[in-house]
Amino acid sequence: VLIPSSALPSHPRARSLPPATMAPRALDVDEAGFIELFGGIYEKSPWIAREVCALRPFASLTTFAAAMAGVVKNADESVQVKLLSSYPELASRAGPASEPSSFSGQEQARAGLNALTPEELDKFQQLNTAYREKFGFPFILAVRRASTQTILSAFGSRLRNTRAQELAQSLSQVEKIAWMRLLEVVPPEPTGVLTCHVLDTARGIPAAGVQVRLRRLDGASFDGLEGGAATKAFVTNADGRLEGPALKGPEFRAGAYEWEFEVGDYFVRAGVPTAGQPFLDVVPARFGIDNPEEHYHVPLLCSPWSYSTYRGS
Least buried of 19, 57, 88, 223, by fewest C-beta within 10 Å? Predict the structure, then answer.
């Protein structure tokens, strides 16, 4: 995985590493540097990085993440449970001995778990205790983009699962957490693109001439620089597609995005019967990019009265 010499990882743990680990090929450092850099991707479990180190080289961050996940999946159940037990309870009141890693601390803070009311803290304490007593390991959820209500709802539903179901669910969650941590430490290969296609389902044809806008929901510019463009504008061609990818290269970053499609204007110009006050005018479609190394195709199928979207290929 190539890393520009100027692209320093954003996580404080990574920024504190020796300069050698900031070389263009972060995955090609010696074993000690490799374990130092990636030993905390799975909470306080450097043994995973140590095993994966011997499997190098990796073609991409995606294959590297898959190799780490494979080590966990192939481990004995007792080892898996020990790994899960390395993660801190959510909103825990535990003392310094159970202090979360800097990764976990930041993740819980982003979810607002460091600013709960006394009543919410009591609720978390009760659920943490009930969960650990039933399953023998802490409740784990990738909370970085979750609300307090989402977390509490997930607690309630998962407490009804069997231990086997929760073991599988928890391992899935730590894999998701590991991927988000990797994205903070190592920039992914710039191989992904975002494309779009608009189809007129009222007439069964591509929707040509539709005005389309794209923006990041965090308000950041597409080039990541202050003062850069925060919105992109397109017009679909005769095939209902954009002329090339909407995003590619360094602009194609993980995050939440929104399309806006001017379908009301399109159907009026096309002479399709609509109401005086169009039922659909500007159609928004919010979506997330999790892996910048993959192709995300996010089309729109629409009529004057309905629309749908999905992740295509």
Answer: 19
pTM: predicted TM-score of the whole model, two decimal places: 0.85
Nearest to 177 by CA among 80, 108, 91: 108
What letter does residue 212 receive in the DSSP assignment? E
Is 129 buried (19+), middle (13-18) or exposed (0-12) by CB count in 10 A?
Answer: exposed
Q: What angle do CA 136, 138, 139 make, to 5 degrees?
A: 120
102 burial level (CB within 10 Å; 0-12, 13-18, 19+): middle
Residue 205 bridge partners (DSSP)? 200
Rounded (5°) CA angle 6-12-15: 35
Q: Which residues contact 163 (CB under 8 A, 6 or more apart)?
A: 134, 135, 136
Lowest mean per-residue pLDDT among 4-8, 12-16, 100-104: 4-8
β-bridge partners, 302: 200, 307
DSSP state letters, 180-207: HHHHHHSPPPTT-EEE-BEEETTTTEE-
Say if residue 141 is exposed, middle or buried (CB neighbours under 10 Å; 0-12, 13-18, 19+).
buried
HEC letters along 154-166: HHHHHCCCCHHHH
DSSP state, 97? Answer: G
Q: How far is CA 112 from the centre of its chain?
A: 18
Do the bridges between strand 198-200 and strand 300-302 make them parallel or antiparallel, or are there none, so unpaired? parallel
